[in-house]
Amino acid sequence: MTKIVAATTIVTSPGRNFVTVRISTSDGLVGYGDATLNGRELAVVSYLDDYLLPQLIGRDAHRIEDTWQLFYRGGYWRRGPVTMAAIAGIDVALWDLKAQAAQMPLYQLLGGASRTALATYGHATGRDFAELADSIRAHQEKGFRHIRVQSAPPGLGRIYGVHDGTPTQSGLPVVEQWDTPAYLRHAPRMFEAVRSEFGEELSLLHDTHHRLTPIQAAQLGKNLEPYSLFWLEDVTPAENQEGFRAIRQHTTTPLAVGEVLNSAFDYLTLISEQLIDFVRSSVTHAGGITGLRRILDFAALYQIRSGMHGPADISPIGMAAAGHLALAIHNFGVQEYIAQSASVHDVFPSTHEFRNGNIHVSDHVGLGAWIDETAAAGFPYERSFLPINQLADASVHDW
Ligand code: GCO
Ligand code: MG
Prior knowledge:
The protein is of the alpha/beta class. The protein has 13 helices and 16 strands. Strands 4, 5, 7, 8, 9, 10, 11, 12, 13 and 14 form a ten-stranded mixed beta sheet that branches. It has a three-stranded antiparallel beta sheet with strand order 1-2-3. Helix 2 (64-72) runs antiparallel to helix 3 (81-102), helix 6 packs parallel to helix 7 and helix 7 packs parallel to helix 8 (243-250). The mean pLDDT is 97. Bound molecules: D-gluconic acid (GCO) and magnesium ion. D-gluconic acid binds at residues 38, 207, 209, 259, 309, 311, 313, 336, 386.
């Protein structure tokens, strides 16, 4: 039996915080998993260090499913982002170890490749149309064929998805502004301008970041139909899964949901009633490869595809895990991909490559991504928060 002999967390902040799980075995191998939960990183570290990792010592490293069930089913307090990110970090490290032991790239253990490379989308953003158009062109030059577009309704200050030059991390949460009527007027105008400048073929995505009521979302989806979006994302908070019934009855714009969802139960109504088209959960936030594969196999029964969350707050280790799973499953849709800084790549060496709009998963044994602990030590943890969102009357709105 290959025993787990050590399991630890590593926290590092090369520009933003990342949490990594490192597991070592009796046969001398070391596996890594990403457990980063943006703005709540240390809650996951405590969950791992204080509760889960001590239970790993002496266990059989190859019992991946059993270990997943131990921490999910056996933990009594199930689900939730902190728990599922902690389980994800362990699960991916165990898959990395198993693939290294098998001397194979991880995707081979998941059934082998179903495609040659993974189509990605990037984020184009601008305070006005001129800036947005420049950003779209810059993405096209990098080879992106799918591009998410976001721009600010006139008159609003700092808003989700649009860079205004102020730092995204600070001592306390940054406050952003929101105005639903202004947004509902602006979004179709933005797509009208983008389509007339860039034509019909470019695949366009858009993220509403949970801000609308179901009926507002239905109106938006309907008004965007002429612009044939690849997807419209997170139109309303998905805790209200039944709300999507109303949206679906009113619009044929494809819907993507779920970057904050982390178990198949969170998708029960959305998937079984075919209320969405893309599952947005990531390996890092949805219980690892074991957890997300379960959700995606369920989705596949209803022709729903993957659109895994891939923001900059998922480390290259998390992106590598996403790549192996996306390469193997049949119902892959598209992979979100945000270029990381040079210091992130120094801390997290990885062997997958972004080329011409695609991610190419490598044939390196195991996950093919790891952490350089000496480089990581140069970037200690810095407390940071996601922004919060408010209306003109200073009341809190969904972010
Ligand atoms: C996306 C997301 C991100 C999240 C961020 C939160 O579609 O990529 O909405 O922008 O806000 O990952 O941690
Ligand atoms: Mg999103």
